[in-house]
Amino acid sequence: MSQNLQTVLELQQALSQLRDAEQRLHGIPDWMRELHEEHETRKAEIDNIEAAAAEAARERRTAEAAVQDSQEKLKKYQQQINKVSTQREYGALLQEIDTVKGQISSGEEQALSSLDISEKAQKDLETLRDGFREIEERYAAEQTRWDAEKPGISKQVEKLQARIATLRQQLPRNVVANFERILERYPSGAVAPVRIIERPGQKQREWHCAACNYRVRPQVVVEIRNGGSLIQCESCKRILYLEPAEAD
Known about the structure:
The protein has helices at residues 3-26, 30-80, 87-170, 173-185, 218-226, 244-247, and strands at 191-197, 206-209, 215-216, 239-241. By secondary structure, the protein is α+β, with helices and mostly antiparallel strands. The chain folds into two domains: 3-171, Helix Hairpins; 185-247, no CATH class. Helix 1 runs antiparallel to helix 3 and helix 2 runs antiparallel to helix 3.
């Protein structure tokens, strides 16, 4: 195996390790994931009910304010009854009074309904918060444990970043540029092993790119084995290499 290919493989391995470490650092560890999901689900339930309770309280205040305004209008209309001089004015005023009374009745119903919703939401919140308290305590303990592990992962990230920088410097610029182009296309990896596929009934072995399954010509395998220039898959363009078991 050529030195450049060996360095490329080490670079790919370091990048994969860095990606995994950064995901652990900024994500949720597997041992905490189930509790995290339960915590977030319960918290979302509480948040939703709190929002519903707040909306019901707002609607109640709005309805009560509307009732108060309508009651003031009703007083004014009732005071005007003795002042009207025609039957037409009297009928129009009675119609306005009926309309305002309807508004008062509707507003009172709305206020009562909002009050019921708010009271039920408060009861539901008490129940959920009681059950959530135990989960929150466990979650806080796990979070403390996770925070204690983060510095170690951060150091690992720093070491891997330094390792990657060193490996890049060891490679020719054109190799690094090509590697980056392939990696941009395939974030999961810019290299691929060549694998032997045994065909039933056929004596001759076939070599294939393990990433895209494209057939690799025997002479290409020889070039890779001889450690010449870097060889790319003719189909997916990943850099090919032979695993120790396949190189013999």
